[in-house]
Amino acid sequence: MSNDARALNLEFRFLSDNHGVIDWRWDEQVSSKIHHVTWKPKPRDIVFLTLGLDASTQQELQDELIRDLQSEVDHFTKKRKTK
């Protein structure tokens, strides 16, 4: 199975401070990039699987999720700079 095929099937669960449990995945356009240490996630790369979220809630959740992921992104960025 290729990395592209595996990436498309990845679904995640996020516990939002204000909205409870939210299911999401990466957009298909970036699913092959998520395995590269140089890739930086952006809010628009997130697709919500949880139904019933209006546009402003989705924007708020995207920002919250990116902030939550930032520590992992920073770890890999720092690791990349030390090589």
Mean pLDDT: 81
| Low-pLDDT ranges | none
Main sheet properties: 3 strands, antiparallel
Q: What share of the residues lie within helices?
A: 40-55%
Domains, number: 1
Structural class, from secondary structure content? alpha+beta
Number-wise, the strands total 3
Over all CA atoms, what is the radius of gyration? 14 Å
* Number of separate helices: 2
SSE order: HEEEH
What coarse outline follows from CA principal-axis ratios? globular
Percent of sequence in beta strands: 15-25%
Give the oligomer, counting copies of the same chain as homo and different chains as hetero: single chain
Strands of the widest sheet, in order across it, are: 1-2-3
Distance between the termini: 30 Å
SSE topology:
Blueprint: H1 3-8, E1 12-16, E2 20-26, E3 46-48, H2 55-82
Antiparallel strand pairs: 1-2, 2-3
